Amino acid sequence: MSRDTLLDTAPPKPVQRWSASDYARNGRFVQELAGPVFGMLGAKPGERILDLGCGDGALTAEIKASGADVLGVDLSDELLAVARMKGLTVRKVDGHALDFVSEFDAVFSNAALHWMRKPHLVIAGVHRALRVRGRFVGELGGHGNVAAIATAMRAVGARCDGDPALVAPWFFPTVEEYGRLLTEGGFTVREIELVPRPTLLKTGIEGWLRTFGRSFFDQFPEPERTDVVGEVAELLRPSLCDAKGTWTADHIRLRFAAERGA
Predict the structure, then answer these.
(1) Residue 24 covered by a domain
(2) pLDDT digits over 215-253, tens only?
(3) Percent composition of the chain: helix, strand, coil (DSSP 3-state, to 5)
């Protein structure tokens, strides 16, 4: 086996550290705006469901409330601890290395798959984890997601001698790209679309930057980090902040539902 093949099958190293308090304060819109994809899941009492990238378990709890038997998996010890305090069953598992075999009726994922930068490994693991005709339903950042935010981070980072490779540790596919990956992974795509979703940021842009852009901003020591965050915010102000001081993130989501074949 070649070195390139080995690298392609190895899970990438995590690049993002999560703070449960920051996520609860600045990222609650993730749960609040999940209605459409949660509806696509259509969880039923008695089903066995995997919540892939469950975070602090906000949506895992909703799946449990539907009567399904749900397991949440994530890589963040801090977020998993919060999920356990809610009485949820969760495990620390890398989404690139799922070790389940024909165990679930459905795999659900919201706002997590774009952090998993080798999607072919994720999709292969989901396929193994599902029973025949099992459902894979999810929403992730799609092509063009946070384009303005990422561009501003690159611009300020370049001026401050930051590493531009840390700006976007995400996978934001087009409909065509993700549809092809699902099909090649043994799924029949039932629904897939890009959904522009400008998102009101109740705690402002700096909260979003510190929570979701942490992998980039952590390279700067304080007090420089605060200055860099502030510069990015000021660069974004003309395009993402209105006259009343309300910030809106330029989110574009990719939403899909697929079915595992035989």
Answers:
(1) yes
(2) 899 999 999 999 999 999 999 999 999 999 999 999 999
(3) 45, 25, 35
pTM reported for the whole predicted model? 0.91
Report helix, strand or coil for 32.
helix
Contacts of 63 (CB under 8 A, 6+ apart): 41, 43, 49, 51, 70, 108
User: pLDDT band at residue 2, thresholds of 50, 70 and 90?
Assistant: very low
Which of left, alpha, beta for 133 (phi over 0: left; psi -120 to 50: alpha)?
A: left
pLDDT digits (tens, 9 = 90+) for 67-87: 999 999 999 999 999 999 999
Q: Does residue 138 lie in a domain region?
A: yes
Tokens read off for 43: 């969880």
Residue 202 lies in a domain: yes
What does the alpha-carbon distance between residue 58 and residue 23 come to, in Å, rounded to a whole number? Answer: 11
- Contact call for residues 60 and 73 (beta carbons, < 8 A): no
User: How far is residue 213's CA from residue 207's CA, in Å, rounded to a whole number?
Assistant: 10
* Residue range 106-152, pLDDT digits in tens: 999 999 999 999 999 999 999 999 999 999 999 999 999 999 999 99
Strand arrangement, sheet containing 187-196: 90-92, 69-74, 48-52, 104-110, 130-141, 252-260, 187-196
Domain count, the chain: 1
Q: What is the CATH number of the domain that holds 163?
A: 3.40.50.150
The sign of the CA dihedral 201, 202, 204, 206 is negative
Residue 7 lies in a domain: no
Structural domain for 239, as ranges = 18-260
